[in-house]
Amino acid sequence: MVRDGYFYALGLGVVAAIVWLLTHSLVLIALPLLLAAFFLWFFRDPNRVIPSGPGLVVSPADGVVTGTEWIETSEGSRMRLSIFLSVFNVHVNRSPVSGTVNLVEYRKGEFLNAMKEECVLNNEQTLIVIDAGGYDVSFKQIAGLLARRIVCNLKVGDRVERGQRMGLIKFGSRVDVLLPAEVNLKVKVGTHVKGGSTVLAEVTTRSNGSEPSASATVA
């Protein structure tokens, strides 16, 4: 459970208690109690089985894949993969790869619908770049229409592990992942993914060495 869930639930519990003392109405306290239960559920943080093996990139978020496309960047071609999170998804974010954090860049912005393409440039967002050893993987936490706060617990120089919890986007939102050109996608548009456990892609570089193994850890 993310700590925020307890804060929201406690506040609504206090509201329900006050309403009960003033009215003794079960009907009137039903709404704050239901909202408290919703927030406890919304901020859930289940453990995940983290796949292990060279070159694997796991999903940084729960949701559904809404787009895959090649884009040109200053560092060459990159595969961009977009994941949309509804209010029903777990909103804890996880690192897609193991490596060293090279960049954390927060940018204020608008709160457009996360399904719109222009949200990638205009919405509030945090860009994180991780040096995975021989290649970089970038991902953006992008705020949405309801999401008004992005939480990123990483800083430049941090060492992260694949599937490690690294932040949160409150309510509906979007996460984009930029993958290197040497990539073999394992998902497609419409695939439902889980943060830390669904393999999005395998990066095929010489530095990866052996074939992926089937072992996994839980975090």
Task: Characterize this entry briefly.
The chain has 219 residues and is an alpha+beta fold. It has 3 helices and 16 strands.
Describe this structure in words.
The longest helix is centred in the first third of the chain and has 21 residues, at 3-23. This protein is elongated. The protein has helices at residues 3-23, 26-42, 119-122, and strands spanning 49-51, 56-58, 63-73, 76-85, 92-94, 99-107, 125-131, 136-143, 150-152, 159-160, 165-169, 173-179, 183-185, 192-193, 199-203, 216-218. The protein is built from three helices and 16 strands. Strands 10-6-7-8-12-4-3-14 form an eight-stranded antiparallel sheet, with no helix packed on it. It has 219 residues and is of the alpha+beta class.
Largest sheet: 8 strands, antiparallel
Shape annotation: elongated
- The whole-number mean of residue pLDDT values reads 87
Low-confidence parts: 209-214
Share of helical residues: 10-25%
Q: Number of helix segments?
A: 3
Please give the number of β-strands: 16
Widest sheet, order of strands: 10-6-7-8-12-4-3-14
Strand percent estimate: 35-45%
Structural class: alpha+beta
Radius of gyration: 19 Å
H-E order: HHEEEEEEHEEEEEEEEEE
